[in-house]
Amino acid sequence: MSENEQAARAAPRTLSLTISNQPPESALYLVATPIGSARDITLRALDVLNTADILAAEDTRNLRHLLDIHGIAVRGRRMIAYHDHNADRARPAILQALEEGLSVAYSSDAGTPLVADPGYRLARDVAEAGFKVRALPGPSAALAALSVSGLPSDRFLFVGFPPSAAGARRRWIESWAETQATVIAFESPRRVKQLLENLCEIDANRPTVICRELTKKFEEVMRGSAGELAGAIPDEGLRGEIVVLFGHPEEKPVDEADLREVLSELLGRMSVKDAATEAAARFGMPRREAYALAVAMQKEA
């Protein structure tokens, strides 16, 4: 092989990618946008942002900035702001555009629309009105954090943002604390220490991962127990965008007397199979064990 051939093989190739000019069909397109690095956007997202008749966004300034980065011109197209404070006023204009056979691209500030943003009502109303809703998959802070966390991913629960009031936040933690799944939450960087301290009141040993500034220059992943990380975070909190993940709770030994009491109540109104399933879910235990005891209790009766 000649030196020129070796150099050509070693040098990375510059790919020539063309953004489509083909107009999309009339539909509401839910466009996932980068959570940090602008290059994480998909080619299909750029296609739709370039050709949709109407551009809607949680913040149109953020969308304009993203379009500028990728060289996509607005070309006089209508841009509609759609967020928590104006959703009821803005939704009719989007429905009217679809009624006229136009295409609408909707993007949140970052990540996948409808995940912790106001787009779900828009998608619901568009679908109920008989128009098409199309998802353009892409970046998601929740799934990116789950991928790097090292926590079990076979079953997970996204719980959004915690309430800001202390009492409501404690009740919110109690609502998922015993769930046998990896729990994913978004949190303000200034309140993340407080969140962990509240969890420590219930389970200081809970496996915990904090993902900060995912896909950005100062990306950081912190791992430890809830107590360890609460102690490591300064009183003023952290900086940047935060995703917090909690592993499965510790399995606690089931008191047979408590299990018998629950099964006795359940067997009075459902089958052995259903009672065992319900009891196993309540106690976080294998269903076969609850089923065996339920069968034994029926024989005793």
TrEMBL record:
| Stored HAMAP family | 16SrRNA_methyltr_I
Tell me, what is an example of a GO biological process annotation in this record? methylation
Origin organism is Paracoccus broussonetiae
Q: Per its UniProt entry, which superkingdom is the organism in?
A: Bacteria
Q: What is this protein called?
A: Ribosomal RNA small subunit methyltransferase I
Compartments it resides in: Cytoplasm
Please tell me whether the keyword NADP is annotated for this protein: no
MF term (GO), any: methyltransferase activity
Chain ranges passing through the membrane: none
- UniProt keyword Transport, yes or no: no
Query: So what does this thing catalyse?
Result: cytidine(1402) in 16S rRNA + S-adenosyl-L-methionine = 2'-O-methylcytidine(1402) in 16S rRNA + S-adenosyl-L-homocysteine + H(+)
The record's PANTHER family line, in alphabetical order, gives:
RIBOSOMAL RNA SMALL SUBUNIT METHYLTRANSFERASE I
Stored InterPro entries: 4pyrrol_Mease, 4pyrrol_Methylase_sf, 4pyrrole_Mease_sub1, 4pyrrole_Mease_sub2, rRNA_ssu_MeTfrase_I, RsmI_HTH
Residue ranges annotated for the RsmI HTH domain, each copy included:
255-298
Known role: Catalyzes the 2'-O-methylation of the ribose of cytidine 1402 (C1402) in 16S rRNA.
Record keywords: Cytoplasm, Methyltransferase, rRNA processing, S-adenosyl-L-methionine, Transferase
Q: Which family does the entry's similarity section mention?
A: Belongs to the methyltransferase superfamily. RsmI family.
- Give the gene symbol: rsmI
